[in-house]
Amino acid sequence: MVIAIVAIFAYIIVQFYSVTHIKLETEKAEITTVYQSINTTAVVVRDEKALDAPDGVVTVPCVNDGDKINAGGNVAMTFTDAEQATGYSKYAEIQNKIAYYEGLATQTLGQSSSVESINSEVDSKLNDYIRALSDVNTSELQRVGDSINDSLLRRQMIIGENVDLMKVIQGLNKELEKYSSTSTPNDYISTDTSGVFSGYVDGFENVIPYDKAEEADVTAIEKALDKTKKKKDVAKDKLGKLITSYVWYFECVLDADEVKALSDGQKVTVALKNSDDTVIRGEILSGAEPVPGQTKTALIIKCNVMSPKLTSLRREDIEIRIRSYEGFKIPASALHVSEDKKGVYALVSSQVMFRETEVIYSEDDWVIVKFEPDNPNSVRIYDKVITQGKELWDGKVYT
């Protein structure tokens, strides 16, 4: 009983201490941009057609993803077998490297980038390499790896390290000779229509017919999303696809309550959840104004931009950004009211100062307050906003 009583008193003392001695915690105020947005999964619908490869030959595209092809233009080359096709690809790759290093050899240090910009470039490419590694994208790994190597080589040149580029070029020319017998394809495949080429074929090119894209309803979109959950084993008789219109669509199903802040015809931006740096501008074509009583709506967003990355989109987790807010992001618990004014307490040179704030956007546990550089009483950049403390008042000194 004595031990139990001592334990109870000890617990009471600890709890009393924790209530009366709250540790002061602060958070640096920095400008942040947040978005009022809707997260969902969408299917991408384009005007596209898979291109058939001839029987009995190996094909290699002669254009890059995202390249524009005119009617009658060559889209691919044909080779007798895989060995010849691989040899040609290697020959072309070495030729490009020789041209690159020959151009690099003619540069002067004054024309080159700074060390800082090269370092930033390498950091960005390393992030791309990590993404490709995560996606098990071997072709992208090879491309980014070579690009990183080139950036490091240019860095060596800038800082004055001795780099014998002529020796590198001579080695590449010697390697090029090994593939000279495969330097010419047997024939070319042309297209009878113009469009944008992509080597990515997933078998869902007609999951929602393009001529029905603007009329797709909830049922059609849900079926398309369900079908695209699993990847198809696309036949090897396809050499790529041709996208014949720059207008394409994100199509998704949302609860009617989710689109209250939207309207048909509204301009929005769509961010790809698996790629922080890919943001696409679009226009809500329909679905933002459901009829009363409707529980679900088919939201269709029309886009008209194209890039190599966008040609391979199909079933994507997206963030529909309705509007943006820029200001200081702080915990909602840091807000206080002093003399009928809303604000936060900031620690400035060991002294507590009250900073007036105007909340422009809020979520459950954080808010965005307006940045007012012309108001001396408002939150300033790098203020130490007090997020936890006891008995705070304007002018209190912490030692």
Uncertain regions: pLDDT < 50 for 5+ in a row? Answer: none
Q: Fraction of residues in helices?
A: 25-40%
Rg, alpha carbons = 30 Å
Distance between the termini: 43 Å
Largest sheet: 6 strands, antiparallel, barrel
Strand tally: 20
What sort of overall outline do the alpha carbons produce when their principal axes are compared? extended
Which structural category do the helix and sheet elements fall into? alpha+beta
Summed over residues and divided by their number, the pLDDT gives a mean of: 86
Continuous helix count:
6
Explained architecture:
- By secondary structure, the chain is α+β, with helices and mostly antiparallel strands.
- The chain is built from 6 helices and 20 strands.
- The strands form 4 sheets. The chain has a 6-stranded antiparallel barrel.
Name its key features.
single chain; alpha+beta; six-stranded antiparallel beta barrel; 20 strands; 32% strand
